[in-house]
Amino acid sequence: MTHRHQYSWNRQHLIRDGKPWLPVMGEFHYARYPQEQWRQEIDKMKACGVDIVATYVFWIHHEAEEGVFDFDGQRSLHAFLAVCQEAGVTVWLRIGPWCHGECRNGGFPDWLMHKPFPIRGNGEAYMACVRRFWERVYLEISDSLYGNGGPVIGIQIENEFAHCGGSGEDDHIDNLLALANQIGFETPYYTATGWGGAKIGSLLPVMACYCDAPWDRRLEPLPPSPNYVFSHERNDVDVGSDFERGANVTFDEDAYPYLLAEMGGGIGTTFHRRPTATPADTGAMALVKLGSGANLLGYYMFHAGTNPGQELNETWESGSYCETPTLSYAPHSPIGEYGQLSDLACEVKLLHMFIHSFGQQLASMPAQLPACGAKHSGDRESPRYALRTKDGSGFLFVNNHQRCYPQPDMTFDVPEYGQVNAPSGYYAILPINLPIGNALLKRAKATPLCILNGNTYVFWCDGDPAYELEGDIDDCTIVTLSRQEALNAWHFIEGDREDLIICDAPLIPGEQGYHFLARKDTAWRSLSGGAGMISVPKEQPSVAYHRTHVNFLCYDYDLAFSYGGESAETYLQVVYEGSHAELFVDGIKVADDMYDGCTWEIGLARFGRPTKATLRIYALFEGMPVWLQNPPVYTDGRALKLHRLTMENEYKIRK
Q1: Which positions ≥6 away from 448 have C-beta within 8 Å?
Q2: Collapsed DSSP state (helix, strand, coil) of residue 353
Q3: Could you tell me the sign of the dihedral formed by the alpha carbons of 176, 182, 185, 187, in that order?
């Protein structure tokens, strides 16, 4: 019989099998991704260190017509949970009934919005509608609940209640929880979002942090984010600021562990506000939150997606302040809209590998902030660091990165560690009195990456690691990688042995064993001494195109594709300037993008690798109420230009 874990929590951390537990959670919306690709995408998330898959159950995706339910195909919640169990990940279900998630009406069906009774409150008619929907959801998930042997260990009730709308009734969250329990939803954990004045009832609060706020109403750069300063403050006042700004939390934070469910994993775009984030923007923020005491890193989103219909996005017309792409959702996530593993995925993987090896110890270490440390994001003179230690052993967290506002180079002393040199943009985790064998690693200038086979300690740094050991490490080994090698390090298990494979082509586990995802010839090596080459076919895809229709508002281009042989995926890469762009296949819009200065990449496999398509680019006019971090070049007050189109194949190559 497979071992079943026991889950609980205390005021400091989650608990699994009686021991501190610090997991990594990543959001992936099943209804926003093709069903036949769920397993391979979850395997990619596992390769990046994700333990728990979180997902919304959008009501509008399942009951667009009152009383008519759709849980088929990529809307099959039951099938998705079965795939999660097969893949060996646990699940946190966010069942609403209101979800937000940049979905039309926050996920409520249109018919519900037109009812003559109040919604998101305790009214009998509204709660009867919720009961009917949840009873149908329960049929999908009953055998997937943890108590029944399934992967669902957590359920989130509602979202941002009394912060982003809702009646504000004090007992509404608990009434929803009671209803869920009556129906049969039983899991080890029940949560509610707790930021910005939201009400949590008797549930476990989860928090959020984002490096920017594409929903914010301001059409200008935001001031320096406080999310890059170590702090005991858990509330991010910018989250949901299109609804309400600056409200404090409604619960005693000391009574609950610090859990993050919405740590921005790459920034989305809205029509009026289009920031772009570097991998460092997310990596440094995640490190700061971990150093500040967070004991669950939950990313929103970790995997991007595509809305399963043309009118399911958040729009001005549907009453939202934000206008989001019709189809594309969160394309700059660590894993992209078409399954691309980005540089951001490699960046956050550094932290996740550390957590998997050291998280059990770290979870019970309280965060300690120095009196001399920076207290606010505008402070560019004071050092930014925190300690998480217990009995004199632990880790020093250092950050000298501030999104969009470069920090000066800094050198400062930490009494428990010694002198720290922190160039502008530097962020790291440094060991203090770390046990290795019978020795203590008193300090080092290298960041721990992972422990392999219980005796190989892997660190990374650029420069001298300056290990200061006291005692005998016995049969243990210390290995030092460069930062780039660590970014390219993939965990590999063969039998009862662990290894690291260093390769700039991601190494992904799967039902048939490990495979590389390669777009070009590249080399790989392992820490245990193996090495090899990955070769891809020489015949590559190409695209021919010509402009067919022009007016002042948009240009149309006819595209003709040549695929260059079989591959796992073929990407079309579009470099353009304008307001937004759309791709049509057989006259149907299949993909879209809001211009933010990044290359738009589209996976063509899901569309049957068409031989022809139409690209439409819309003009952006100078003076429109749009803020762009990377603005286009305007000609006579208008930006409308296709710079280039390219194609690239990606291959699955067995290790």
Answers
A1: 354, 357, 358, 395, 429, 431, 434, 457, 458, 459
A2: helix
A3: positive
- Helical axes 124-141 vs 172-183, angle rounded to 10°: 40
> 507 - beta bridge partners?
516
Q: How deeply is 351 buried, as exposed, middle or buried, from its count of CB atoms within 10 A (0-12, 13-18, 19+)? A: buried
Q: Are 518 and 651 in contact (CB under 8 A)?
A: yes
The pLDDT of residue 242 is 61
Whole-angstrom Cα distance, residue 14 to residue 31?
29
In 443-541, where does DSSP find H-type helix? 483-487
pLDDT digits 0-9 by tens, 364-387:
999 999 999 999 999 999 999 999
What distance lies between CA 30 and its chain's CA centroid? 14
List, as one string, the DSSP characters of 218-246: -SSPPPPPGGGS--S----TTTTTTT--S
d(CA 324, CA 592): 10
- b/e map 195-229, b = 16+ CB within 10 Å: bbbbbbbebbbbbbbbbbbbbbeeeeebebbbbbb
The terminus-to-terminus CA distance of the chain in angstroms comes to 31
* Amino acid symbol at 74: Q
Looking at residue 359, its amino acid is G
Distance of CA 2 to the CA centre of its chain: 29
Are the C-beta atoms of residues 157 and 166 closer than 8 Å to each other? no
- Measured CA distances, 48 to 345, 351, 466, 481, 527 (Å): 6, 10, 28, 18, 19
Q: How far apart are CA 312 and CA 325, in angstroms?
A: 10
**Token pair listed for 202:** 């008797």
Helices (H), 184-320: 279-291
- Cβ-based neighbour number of residue 255 at 10 Å: 8
More confident residue, 241 or 347: 347
For 223, 235, 412, 424, 524, the CA distances from 378, given in Å and listed in that order, are: 8, 18, 18, 15, 43
**The pTM of the whole model exceeds 0.90:** yes
Q: Are 297 and 285 in contact (CB under 8 A)?
A: no
Which one-letter DSSP state was computed for residue 362? H
At residue 322 the predicted structure's pLDDT band, cuts being 50, 70 and 90, is very high
CA atoms lying within 13 Å on the CB side of residue 349: 26
Tell which residue, 544, 594, 606, has the closest CA to residue 570: 606
Q: Give the torsion sign (CA, 632, 633, 635, 641).
A: negative
> How many whole angstroms separate alpha carbon 509 and alpha carbon 506?
10
Element (H, E) at 262: strand 260-264
122 compared with 247, residue with greater pLDDT: 122
Closest alpha carbon to 630 in 336, 371, 332: 332
pLDDT at 1 over 60: no
- The structure tokens listed for 105 are 């009406």
